[in-house]
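Risk register update: the risk of archive-format incompatibility is retired. Evidence:
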Amino acid sequence: LVQAGDERAPLRASRCRDARDACSRTMSKPLGGSSHANARDALDTYKRARLAFVTSLNEMLRKDDPSLDAALLDNDCLALLHRPLVQDTVPGVRVSALAAMRALATRVDRAGDVLATPETLSKIVSSLSHDDQNVVVAGCGLASALASKRESHVRSLFDAGALGPLRKALDSLNPEIMDAASRCAVAVVAASPWAAERFLAEETACSENEVLPGAALHSGTQNGSENRSKSSILECLCAATSSPTTSLCTRSVIVRIFNAICKHGEALAKRVVRDCDACGVAARLARDAATRVDARETTGPTLARARAAAFACLSTMAAHSADLAAVVMASGVTGDAVAACVYASDAYPEESFQVREAATFLLLSLVNKTPELAQAVCDAGAVESLVQNLSMEAGSKRSVPALTALGYIADYKPSLALRVVTADGGQRIVQTLAKADTGDVAATAAWALGCCARHGEDTASLLAQNGAIRVLLGCYVGAQADRHPTLRDKARTALTHVIKKCGSLDVIDFLVSPTTPGPVLKHVLSEFAERLGKDVHAKRAFVTSGGLMRLQNVCRAHEKDVASASAAARKGESESGEKVTSAASAAIGELAPLLDERSL
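Archived output:
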């Protein structure tokens, strides 16, 4: 470096020119022999310097310091990486440069915008078809980081020709290349429906005379491309899962590709199910991950994540329509999902929850379609498994899928509702409602109780014996219902079903009380009015138990409250000129009359 104003600058410049001329004369001669040792040393020094630079850069990026990331971007670090280093002749330098670019693109949005230019993307795409597998893996990682940020980046990758090399990488027999390409494909198809359709529209990447270096097609022969020239990318992915060289980890990533495509709508989901055996692939993965111990896999969490990915994919497929749900049901995965609903491991609890959640959502996607599918799922033991799942989740928000599934099952017909209640489901739902962490969990539990109780005395009486009335009443008047109006509506509906269907006045006698809200008390008194007129023994029991006296006190207290509320409302209206009503009383209907003419 020549600094202005330095008196030794001319001498330094002269020495630099002499060194440059000497280097030029040395490089012009063929390398070899002791006379060219200096030239080889110079090249080795330059190579080591490049490696040292990208290595130190990646070490800085591992600190995950936002200020350091911003400083690197402000000093044009990406320009230095993608211009000379990302196309370096040394694979190690190229891999490290791609890794650094991936780290910056993942953490900083503007880094992705800088990289999503035609010049840079062309160099990234060229790495996808490199002879060195590490370069291909690093290139797929960088492309995945860009695709997961914005849909515009996916379009830029497609315009740069990334789809062809990515398809070849997916067809590779190299496990590391296939795994990296599959992860990149997940990010690409998840970006938008357009990206998923473009991905599926890509024709076979490997023609008869074009094969990825170091790769081959999964056909069992050296000339597999001749037999696979017209195969779709979905068929290639399904065939890859059947290869003995494909690990469970890579198979789970391929299933995630199917899942990402199916999330974009029923049309794409039908295409995935129709064009390949995607349901069978996911079902086999769930079964193999539960039963097979693969020496190539690291530990149990990897197997658990594979099971969760398989169940999640099948759940997404089944969620779109009854026809797709029937196809998923025919894959034979129901038994595996029933067993996975109660899967637990102390060694990796988070992965265990992912398995339970995905399996429960799969059962939910099946039972909420038709009564026939719900019956078939119940015959496989789903009710008992879902009830046990409720016990494991203990009222947390993780219990919502099981509550919803049990509610749908019970809502179809009395026989299924009775099956839910008698399988200890009624008691578990009541306990979940009592322990609910949030209003959403409580509202779902109250709705499920209403689905069980509405069919008749057989189910409602069992729920009343399990304490459903008191718990529902507590939710109806509780502070949580003020913040969640849906909870109050669901609790009132469930209370109405239990009160009207429980079949015994003794069960609801305690509700004849001043503490019972007016809307609930109306239904209670309506039931007494209907049955006391037909049953002399019930009439005598109502009088001797003190029910009539309590009812008279309740009516007098209620009339006094209504009069006080009306006077306060008239006073407030006269002072402000606007109509004033107690918000809490209006919310639960406290000002409505308790008894109609028939009840009186």
